[in-house]
Design goal:
With about 425 residues, the protein is of the alpha+beta class. The protein is built from six helices and 14 strands. Helices cover about 50% and strands about 20% of the residues.
Length: about 425
């Protein structure tokens, strides 16, 4: 019944939470919450103002770039070499387009002067976008014309290259103006939408909850009350439920018997999630961590080993024969149908690992005053003592040499009889 009682407590907590929400809705929105939404609306208003200023800048910049592209760059080619264009139809089209663009630029200059005073920039945006497309089309034709020029006695290749560069720059600048304006318009539209939403949210918070919302919350309260009644009904039909999927291996009671609290009555073995409990001394526990890989051997399967990992490290100590130990749990990486509960296991925990290091037998190392030394055979064949720095030490008696020895050097050890 423990789980059911926990569910009952949770359901009662949910009921308290939903009841509190209902009371809050009936009381209306708190002043502190309204201040939060006022701040959001103010930030949205600032963002809208910034977007408007950016849009105005891009509208003015579009005229500046267009005016420069036509009058400062494209006109150099038109005034200096339009007569040299061999395609008569293209030449006429460029000249007619230039005449029409002059009218556009004159009218555009007047519009740019009043952009900031316009309440709704939409009409100006439409005009500017249309003007940019017209100028873009004109510059594209001018580009075709200037690219068709060939050097002659009256027109050098250097001059032609200069015209081509100017027209290309003009086209690039106008295309940039089109892109910048499109981005600014999108930013302005998004800022307007965000501001409208923030203002609407503020109005809703100031207005408080609607009668329909209060009725909905009252229904939530009733739902939690029904959940409590359901759990209490389950408790009345108390039952024992295994927390894991497995097989019952021990049943020490019969229906109808009275059992003292805490008495073990049923044992269940998991189908595949077997764990190994072991104890690590306080000297070594600092090296052990959850997820450390382990190698497991079982007395029942000599010569075999099973991979696994540490899944639990108990934070509190366990006293065994007066010695402080810490309980750890290891799990198998993959299930094996041969594994049974109660088998004796040996767990080898890998706390650190290094590849391609120099390692020597620990018995070859002498220790003096917290320093480590080995005897080596020098180039001249004589014995010499050298200080070394040690690193990791393995369970098989080898120790890592961090510095002091190089690969290939020979160390000398005294064999004990």
């Amino acid at each position: 019944s423990t789980e059911l009682y926990a569910n009952l407590l949770q359901a009662k907590a949910n009921l308290s939470s939903e009841s509190a929400k209902l009371a809050e809705m009936k009381a209306g929105t708190r002043s502190e919450e309204i201040l939060v939404y006022e701040a959001k609306a103010l930030n949205a208003e600032f963002a809208l103002s910034d977007a408007r200023k950016n849009l105005e800048d891009k509208l003015v910049d579009a005229f500046t770039k267009s005016d420069d592209a036509v009058r400062a760059k494209a006109d150099q080619f038109i005034n200096g070499a339009i007569a040299q264009v061999g395609d008569g139809q293209l030449k006429a089209s460029v000249e007619q387009g230039r005449a029409a663009i002059e009218v556009v630029l004159d009218e555009w200059a007047g519009i740019s002067a009043v952009i900031e005073s316009e309440t709704d920039p939409a009409p100006i945006i439409s005009i500017v976008q249309r003007n940019l497309l017209q100028i873009q089309a004109f510059l594209n034709k001018a580009g075709l014309a200037v690219n068709g020029l060939t050097a002659s006695v009256s027109l050098s290749q250097t001059t032609i290259d200069g015209y081509r560069s100017d027209v290309s720059t003009a086209r690039t600048n106008v295309n940039t103006a089109i892109t910048n304006l499109s981005t600014a318009v999108e930013k302005w539209n998004n800022a307007e939408t965000s501001f409208a939403i923030a203002a609407r949210e503020l109005d809703l918070k100031r207005a408080g909850s609607t009668p329909e919302a209060i009725q909905s919350q009252e229904a939530n309260v009733e739902e939690q009350e029904a959940a409590i009644a359901s759990i209490e009904a389950q408790l009345a039909r108390n039952s024992l439920t295994s927390p894991i999927r497995g097989t019952v291996t021990l049943l020490d009671v019969k229906p109808g018997e009275i059992v003292n609290a805490g008495t073990k009555v049923v044992s269940v073995i998991s189908e595949d999630a077997l764990e190994i409990e072991a104890h690590v001394s306080e000297v070594s526990v600092g090296k052990v961590a959850v997820a450390n890989p382990v190698r497991i051997t079982l007395d029942a399967f000599p010569g075999e080993s099973f991979p696994g990992k540490i899944i639990y490290l108990e934070p509190a100590e366990t006293i065994i024969d007066g010695v402080v130990n810490f309980k750890v749990k290891a799990s198998f990486d993959s299930p094996d149908p041969r594994l049974k509960s109660g088998l004796t296991a040996n767990v080898y925990i890998e706390t650190a690992k290094k590849e391609s290091v120099i390692a020597i037998p620990r018995y070859a190392v002498e220790t003096r005053e917290s320093k480590f030394f080995v005897n080596i055979r020098g180039i001249d064949g004589r014995q010499a003592e050298r200080e070394i720095v040690l690193g990791l030490q393995s369970v098989d008696g080898f120790v890592e040499v961090i510095s002091g020895l190089s690969e290939g050097e020979k160390i000398l050890v005294a064999l004990k009889k």
